[in-house]
Write a structure and sequence with these properties.
Protein name: Ribose-5-phosphate isomerase A
Number of domains: 2
Subunit structure: Homodimer.
Structural class: alpha/beta
Family: Belongs to the ribose 5-phosphate isomerase family.
Number of strands: 13
Order of helices and strands: HEHEHEEEHEEHEEHEEEE
Strand content: 25-35%
Strand order of the largest sheet: 2-1-3-6-12-13
GO molecular function, one term: ribose-5-phosphate isomerase activity
CATH architecture of the largest domain: 3-Layer(aba) Sandwich
Bound molecules: ribose-5-phosphate
Shape: globular
CATH class of the largest domain: Alpha Beta
Pathway: Carbohydrate degradation; pentose phosphate pathway; D-ribose 5-phosphate from D-ribulose 5-phosphate (non-oxidative stage): step 1/1
């Protein structure tokens, strides 16, 4: 069986050129991109500076010999390559299934170009089947949960394997909203970001420039 995540991850590594500052995404698809990039560095002598979007990716990149900097140590990022949980025909998406949405969004917002890499299951006609992650300050999270319940957003506090509240790299909680279809993503984004205690949410609107999608055994490049 074709490994679609590997296929798009390896294709994405071809978009990187010598001297670039590259945002390194997080997750099981971005894993293959980081590995393919590391291969180009060791085999072709490609010189790049990596900006990891999570501690998990930083560990992987370090183990594989990629030079790394934080987003504040660089003037800007040339290209960020990251996974997505869902994307729609306008290339708006949901991210944060792996909890890395905050730093992912900061790095993407400071990138000249953003490419998402996706297996075929990530392409949707309307966002919202995937639970929407909202990163929140721990203090007051109980009240945000109650607010989301009242709004009918069916919130759940994300927990780790031990059943304890999941902590992001920045030590916040994540509340997942089970919306079953988002009709106005822009309005929802505005609502969420203005709630006191919300740090960031997983709606990535007007951020991706391209998606490399695995479909029918090939890589399809979808441009905005
Ligand atoms: O927080 C995690 C990130 O947003 C991931 O890029 C996203 O969840 C997609 O992950 P995966 O490639 O493992 O499906």
């Amino acid at each position: 069986m074709v490994n679609e995540k590997k296929m798009v991850g390896e294709r994405a590594a071809e978009f990187v050129s010598d001297g670039m500052v590259v945002g390194l995404g997080t997750g099981s698809t971005a894993y293959y991109f980081v590995m393919a990039l590391a291969k180009r560095i060791s085999e072709e002598g490609l010189k790049i500076s990596g900006v990891p979007t999570s501690l998990e990716t930083a560990r992987l990149a370090e183990k594989n010999g990629i030079k790394m900097y934080s987003v504040d140590e660089v003037d800007g990022v040339d290209l960020t390559i990251d996974g997505a949980d869902e994307f729609d025909p306008q290339l708006n998406g949901i991210k944060g299934g792996g909890g890395a949405l905050l730093i992912e969004k900061i790095i993407a917002s400071n990138s000249k170009e953003v490419i998402w890499i996706a297996d075929h299951s990530k392409e949707v006609s309307q966002l919202g089947s995937f639970p929407l992650p909202v990163e929140v300050i721990r203090e007051g999270s109980k009240h945000l949960l109650a607010y989301f319940t009242d709004k009918g957003y069916q919130p759940t506090l994300r927990v780790n394997d031990e059943g304890e509240p999941y902590l992001t790299d920045n030590e916040h909680y994540i509340i997942d909203l089970h919306l079953e279809g988002i009709t106005d993503a822009q309005a929802l984004s505005e609502e969420l970001i203005h709630l006191v205690g919300v740090v960031e949410h997983g709606l990535f609107l007007d951020i991706a420039d391209k998606v490399i999608l695995a479909k029918d055994g090939n890589c399809q490049i979808i441009e905005k």
